[in-house]
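Give me the fold.
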Amino acid sequence: MAKKRKVLLIGWDAADWKIINPLMDAGKMPAFKKIVENGVMGNIATLDPPLSPMLWTSIATGKRADKHGIMGFVEPDPESGGIRNVNSTSRTTRAIWNILHHEGYKSNIVGWWPSHPAEPINGVMISNFYQKASNEEGKPWVLQDEVVFPKEYEKVLSVLRVHPLEITEQHLLPFVPDAANVNQDEDKHLRSIAKILAENASIQAATTWLMRSTEWDFTAVYFDGIDHFSHAFMSFYPPQLPGLPDNLYNLYKGVVEGAYIFHDMMLERLIELAGDDTLVLIVSDHGFYSDHLRPLSLPKFGPAPAYAHSPYGVFVMSGEGIKKDELIFGATLLDVTPTLLAAIGLPIGKDMDGKVLVNAFSNTQEIKYIDSWDTIEGDFGEHPEHKRASVGDSMEALQQLVELGYIEDPGEDKANAQKTIEAENKYNLAKVYFSKADYSMAKTLLEELLVENVMDVRVNMDLANCYMNLKEFENVRGIVERLSGMKEDDENRQFVNMDLIEGQLLFAEGKSDLALEKLRALEEKNPYNVQLQIELGKVYLAIRNFELARIAFVHVIQLDINNAVAFHGLAVALLRLGHYEEAAERALDAIGLRYHYPNAHYLLGEALLRLQLFQDAANAFELTLTMNSAYFRARKWLVEIYSKHLNNSEKSIHHQRILDLQLKGKITIVSGFPDSGFEILLKVLAHGGIEPFPQLDEDNIVEHAMNRVNNRTKDFSWLADAHGKVMLLPATSLKFLPLGFEYRIVFLLCPVEDLIGHQQQKENRKNQTYPLNLINAYNDIIHDIDTWVMENPTRTILYVQRDDLFSGNGEALENINKFLDFRLDIDGMTKVVDTESDI
């Protein structure tokens, strides 16, 4: 039997590169630096919502919360009727230690959140209640039941714990050199430091004892110290925040730095005990804002402290078979378990949401898959089903969540506390669905929550985003009106930027000029608002002012170097400005921050194509399709690249076949009234990359379209040849189109006075009375078309104003491209518009 590979997984909650990097450079974190120099390092993207129990469970399972079942910090207690700390029994999927148990590995799991009650695994598990000191001074500190498995280790592990009262002046001075000047009756900060130190020292003591005293293949340990130190002391971290008294700043400005150094000291011992042959992975679940992005105040809703979490944490992996001193890009929390399973040589469940970080390995890694670890029969070291209702709880852990501000004090009203937590966990689930772009599921949950509290700010804001993505703009406007009625003294009013929401709404509705006016007015008041600058950049891209878009996105990056959306927007602007190499670099920056970003991969492919790096471009487009198989434009490029540049007819035919299947039954129609110029719109779409049906005939294109529809026989048998193509059809003929196809209609509107003028010129009539009958007929036709479209979900229509099409700002072209699933080449469309703008 092959020797099992030893793995040490260390969790540092909230660890952030912005603090680690300068400390490493200063020689203050030598143990961590050693791991970095002998392995790979990079950002690791968090998940939404960034709540630690949900995130650490995702790390341990490779799955999002909708699959693993942990929805927050606390949960309803079926026994007491109140609430309890979230428990391991609430997890609905197997964690990595369960998988390893089944495969015969011995594991030590220490303090993972949540892991109480300890699971009966092959090895030792110490739950996240182990280090919590709940005893009053002078009373015994008793270890709670089911904190340790197996029970035989309870006695020795119990005495290894460090109580906060054991923390002395010598322990505190490295954090607060002037601790003697603190009035501890009024200032509780030293007690907070002592508590955090004691709890993390307890976890360290248990872990090092187990590593020395037991046989193990896998050790996973979780430290919450950096997170707790950051929540309590980041407001004192340099530079000094406005309004912070000098004496408090000078007392506590070194605490956060001390926390990192303390963790590095503990890490040194863990590495020493692990040995050189062990794969070591250090990961944090999110970062923590430490610079100008630190929130100066927090909202009065939900787990408000989470608003101080930054979206990227720390990822470091070192050991045999791992690259040395290299960066790794695109890691997410979901990738940890799949990567560890691959490193060990075990298969990855296809139902896991994460991927294997193959670029971390120095050699090609054989990756094996199974459908799911959850469906395999056998012993996985799990609790029996009956334990899901009957578990212990820790009042100390619950109270700490109250003190940190993650939950409200449940009080004596158990029923109300349970109702509150049920709503909170439903909200968290909605956030999970939203992060997966399942806006319909998120919308359903949020609408249910709004019934209970119609003025809940968070729910309204997130529901507005759902409606925006679902193009339910009237519903968005309803939320804007509702929130505009917030009372002046409402504490959360400052967290609702109604003008920004309205600007986003106007842009989503295609009203870029009005959106730009609104957003520019906001910019004058607050030029450093990151989200505002992103929205401005998006509008500038839509109206094809690429230089102003470039400036806006550069501004965002200067404010927030870890903003993937800004890097992608900048890449788009640079590509359109012809700076292809720099566009590719910025697209790679976006991908490095957020790997699962199909738009960025596509943009990279397009930039590489312009640089004539055809194989690299094909690789980027192929990767785009693994993330979004319906990305038509990427597939069309692949058909062309493989056929014209890489001489790979097999792959070209493969992608063309898929494209034909995806477009089967889908027909794009350009429509309008005679004399409106709608035949020009057909040329625009044809030059955008959609094949016209039949081929364009510059002389009699409208006449062909009129003759194509025989209103007497209603013969549309020829439509079978129009799959995936674009055809011209006059407005009055739309209603004769048969069922059985999916129609997307781009309808060109022009002022009715122009149509009437053309009509009168044809009939050689002048100076007649106002032709009310013609205007009514025009309006009746439009009304009939709207009714016809609404009668069947396979029909959708986009109205495009002729003046907007030829305005030169490009917004109409962007709207058409969006309507047609981003299948079009905007540059090709623009050339037609520019040459035909005199109609």
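The first helix runs from residue 17 to 25.
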